[in-house]
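Feature request disguised as a bug: please show the residue count (615) next to Helix-hairpin-helix domain-containing protein in the output. Example input:
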Amino acid sequence: MRLEDYWGIGPKTSERLVSALGTSRAIEAIESADVRALVDAGLHRGRATRILRRANGEAGMDVLATGDTRSVYDDLLSLAAGHALTAHAADRIRVLTPLADREAVEERLDDVVAAREAWEGLGEADRERVVEAFDAYDDAEGSDLAAVETALALREAGLDHGPFAAVGELESERLRDAADALADVRGSIDPTAIDDGGEIEIARGADAELDRLRDRRDAAEELANSAFDVLDAVRDGSLRDFEALEAATVDRVASETGVDPATVRSVAPDDALDAADFVSATLRDLAAELEAEVAEREAAVAADIRERIGGMQAKTDEAGEADGNNGRGSAVTRAVNAVSDAAFLLSLARFAADHDLVRPTLVDDGIAVRNARNLFLAGEVQPVSYAVGTHSLAGDAGVASADAPPTGDRVSVLTGANSGGKTTLLETICAVALLASMGLPVPAEAAEVGAFDRIVFHRRHASFNAGVLESTLKSVVPPLVEDGRTLMLVDEFEAITEPGRAADLLNGLVTLTVERGALGVYVTHLAEDLSPLPDAARIDGIFAEGLTSDLALRVDYQPRFGTIGKSTPEFIVSRLVANASDRGVRAGFEHLAGAVGEEAVQRTLSDAEWTGDDE
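Example output, currently without the count:
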């Protein structure tokens, strides 16, 4: 496969990836969703993420039918990635996409829920130990040694079963053997280094004799690079003849390198042309001799490391658990893979635990939530229950009858007060549908979520011109009429054209949604202007209830089903009257109070315990 066959990779990007990684490694990075590799190769992180999302979830990306849907999707993944234990786990989270296969959704839900239970079951000390191990793993940039040590920490914390069974299959004794062997290696081991004799960089401290030989070689090479300085030094003094210069050179070199004089003498030339030739040839040949000794010792130490790690491979093979990784060492490779997967699952578990997410029930049709919360709102929020389509939450004993969403309606028209949370409810439903489609828990006490081929979320626009109307219709209608299951979440059509025509358009959209077998929630202030809706549609309302003592709008965010919500302008006018510091401006707002109902305004101000200026 060519790199340019992947979405988003043109000739220039392909050339950059090949130059930095090579074709095979670049393809491997794309197929394994390795964001870091693409970023290190010079791609912007956002571009790398988009490429990998398409490469690994092309069908799922079609679910994101509008820019606003994609915005919620991006925000959800950014929020989840903020709970990641490692940089690579964060990258893996950012490239999650909706899953087209329902079995894959169930499988991921199984893993994430089990991982959350395991995480919450740990004691505080074990959690800290696991976090510290992953911090060290990240600092070491995922080295083999760090992976093995992290796997040991996971086992010691008890994260070795269920979704972490791959960690449990790694025997502690073999992991410790691997850690000991890898501690003698600098960096990660090349996959060919065990069986095929590939290079192993041996760390300092792994072998005392090797360290001694390296020190002597380094000293000899340093002298060889400054041969004329050595010549000047040995000439300094009264040397009687060339033989005395040779002896002085041997003594000085032996002294500064730690090599015995006999060895230095053995490499000295017998036919030097002059003093300079003698000194430079002696140093050059000594450095070569010592390099050969270092290479011989390195080969012996590397062979020992190969035997130790290779021994682990042999033991694993005897147990019938070989992984076919061409000698890298099954225990090491499996530890690397197990730790990467554990970091990913534990990161999602922490996200679910910190936001109290629950497993949704996957259904064929409909979306229903009980006490759902918007993840993007700070502070304490009022949960809401809502549904469109067929569901079973209406009969749930945990839902008060007044708050129980009706079942069977395909479309709802949501009405109510300004700042009443209607758009927030649409965003919440969109987030629940997206999280469930990715196999992730959702922010609710309970939820039933169908499978959607497209999610159309469209926020209101402040502009009022024909261009916005046209672009909006082109955004929401095509996905609605495509084959498959569509969820429509559309906010305030009246913001993009005059109210009378907006009501006509909304009637048409509601009817079309029902006819296409889609589900929809449409927010509007024009419910009273709508023609009779299809039997499968209903009208719901959110109500403002007054002002708080600090003049904030007090809203019951739980929609009332089958009821038109009121915009209650008297509450807004009441707040303007209360906040007006200029006597003339206040008089103007009081005049408006008479227009919207002076008695209602005065009652609101009284309920808010406000007292104005008596003058």
